[in-house]
Amino acid sequence: MLKLPNTSISIFTVMSKMANEYHAINLSQGFPNFPIDVRMTDIVTRLAKTDIHQYAPMAGYPPLLEKIAQLTLEHYQRKVNPSTEILITAGATEAIFATIQAFVQPQDEVIILDPSYDCYEMPIILSNAKPIRIALKDDYSPDFDLIKKHLSSKTRMLILNNPHNPSGKIWTEHDFIQLEKIIENFPNLLILSDEVYEFITFENKHISINTREKLKERSLIVSSFGKTLHLTGWKIGYLIAPEHLLKEVKKVHQYLVFSVNSLAQASINEYLTIFDVHEVAQLYLHKRNFFQNLLKETAFDLLPCEGTYFQTASYQNISDEKDLDFTKRLVTEFGVATIPLSVFYKDKTDLKRIRFCFAKEDELLMQAAERLIKIKQQNI
């Protein structure tokens, strides 16, 4: 019997494949198309000639663990033990998978807030547990009445994504206070907080679970050097959690990947001595504003983008097509690949919205906008 009989190729693979076939501008998959910092390439080139190519320690390269502890203290005023409360993972996806496998038992329930990234549900199903998909409000803020309604003694975990992919929404102080209130009566509930875009926020500052005294002792927090340092292909992430929780994840991690790329870890460790993570927000603030200004001349209505490098847009004034059909036609007729938001929902909710990735060179964004402007002219 198959474990995932209803799982197909992801929409990200589908749209990128279509973009290649039709020579379209790919604003679908979430990765930068610009070169990484030359200082990083210099570091990698030099370290590649040293004796750094054997297994790293299972939990991570010790100097990098120290750097993460320092980063966490500087940004969130949380002191974590680098040897017992941090785990380097093979990307954020492995951190999420290992965490769910470590704690979720058969018949448990795990709450996922839709629209949601596609890597959350599969490890729950593989654990023979039940994913409970709850819709966010239309503005992508959490619906605490619905969350409260679905909480029970069976609820083992609640997965948060903040800043949020695909919408770019970030949680407010009020949101966290509400969450803290409604989970008081569920002491066995764990929080898996996906914060991979934590350093890509704009007007409002990201609030991390690292700063929440009532939550951090029951939370596992996922971060991504791939997102922060524009190194998505390196697949290097990390997990922060109290020792009693992290030791359980390490049991899965050691048999899943054992350890993570040693050259990449050593290179990131050295790079963090010369790189200021505040630069990331400034880079993407420019790109967000630049892209939004370009799209003012199109027929799309832009939703707020508070964080991440994704811009959500409504095409209600353009077409009444289903969003999947609309995005495919954008590729075939206009040469721009995007992602339909319905794929992020369990029930395929279609609000006539699509997601653009603006982590691209300015010239490419300008070319995409020139093509998108034609949609207004032809009124498809």
TrEMBL record:
Residue span, Aminotransferase class I/classII large domain: 24-372
Keywords noted in UniProt: Aminotransferase, Pyridoxal phosphate, Transferase
Native organism: Flavobacterium piscinae
Database matches in NCBIfam families: PRK09082.1 (NF006569)
Record-linked Gene3D superfamilies: Aspartate Aminotransferase, domain 1, Type I PLP-dependent aspartate aminotransferase-like (Major domain)
Gene Ontology molecular function: kynurenine-oxoglutarate transaminase activity; pyridoxal phosphate binding
InterPro entries the UniProt entry points to: Aminotransferase_I/II_large, Kynurenine-oxoglutarate_AT, PyrdxlP-dep_Trfase, PyrdxlP-dep_Trfase_major, PyrdxlP-dep_Trfase_small
PANTHER family for the chain: FI04487P (PTHR43807:SF20)
Family: Belongs to the class-I pyridoxal-phosphate-dependent aminotransferase family.
Swiss-Prot/TrEMBL cofactor(s): pyridoxal 5'-phosphate
One Gene Ontology CC term in the entry: cytoplasm
Protein name, entry field: Aminotransferase class I/II-fold pyridoxal phosphate-dependent enzyme
Pfam families the UniProt entry points to: Aminotran_1_2
